[in-house]
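> @MW can you paste both from yesterday?
MW: sure, first one:
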Amino acid sequence: MTCRDFIAIGASTGGVDVLRILVSQLPADLCAAIAIVQHVGAHGSILPSLLEGAGPLRAVHASDGETFVHGKIYVAPPDRHMLVKDGHVRLDAGPKRNFARPAIDPLFESAAAEMGGRVVGVILTGLLRDGVAGLAAVHACGGVTIVQDPAEAFACEMPMRAVPYADYVLPVAQLADRLVALTRGTRMV
């Protein structure tokens, strides 16, 4: 069974609350690194402190060149795309994608290209279509894909558009258990 040790999560409108719920349910000994893109644009962000306060995992704004470590949450900093290159964080000030920087697609696409089946891609609440192409890339490279149930999302557009590429469509209450099972190689129904 493939080691699923990299979790890429994308969220937009309504995402902070969902992310806080999700990380509050993850264990301190999670066998994966978590990379999160929340659409914040160029505005200041306190998301790492909000996530760290919600659960047992350390959360930081990612730094360019940093190595991904299991049990740690890396949040894309304002106005920078977060990419995966040779197991390290790469921050990029390139053009906006899907009207956003940071955008979800660059993270998911680079993680899929670098890590293939090791990646778990998660699309949460949001508007428009950022993350859809990236989730398709994760799926095509043998990674596992999860989408928040659009019926419960604060903004259902991103999840609805991502459903065709989803291995699992789950309510927020079931996301953490599924992620833990995937990182531990546990089979779930």
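MW: second:
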Amino acid sequence: MDDDVKQPFMGHLEELRQRLIVCAIAVGVGFVGAYLFAEQLFQVLIQPLKAVMPEGDKLIFTNLPEMFFTYLKVAFVTGLLAAAPVIFYELWLFIAPGLYHNERRYVIPFAASSTVLFVGGALFGYLVVFPFGFQFFVGLSNEYVKALPSVREYFSFSIKLLLAFGLVFELPVVIFFLSRLGAVTPETLRKKRKYAILMTFIVGAILTPPDVITQCMMAVPLIALYEISIIISKFAQRKEKAAADDPEATGGKSEDKPDKRA
């Protein structure tokens, strides 16, 4: 590898390291703040399950440090969610040099929309899917079998679902960038609509408890997000065409000016 290739590469790695440090600090600050209220936060997390458990039933933990580590995990996940705006902001700043100059003004909308969609997806899972899903699982108990959910297993299961819903709701942001890169078009998305609808139900079956109601509750918002993504793709494609037709409006690609990371 010659010097003119090695130096830019090392510069990118150095910037990536600095931005990861900023993200880690943000998560750390959020973690410390959240740990002060870890017990209350855990009570909020288990509320959907408590609401459907028989009166008098409780969660259990089977080894002594389990509850302590669960509080740590709750604080970390809360800190991660609190730091989401900073993480998305740093991500945008890292990729911004490869975009048109006028596209860099999207940094605030990108960070805000990504955060809102991620948190919105997690809240949708918590407020809408959790009550029905946990009602289904607890309903499997009978006079011979009784549900005794443990703290560790409940935390692991619920957090995986919350993160999955948060990530899935990022679909419009992903489509926007793929459209700007020319990887997808509104026409392609329309033609693939029937396959996309099938995939939403498959994803719903994978991510949600195995009953039809919760699968549909997952699939319906995904279909709505897909339709919104078609509109977003059309908007992004129009922006890309305008940039190509009027290069002076974009200020040229970032490579027209020296990349500070290089």
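> thanks! The chain has eleven helices and no strands.
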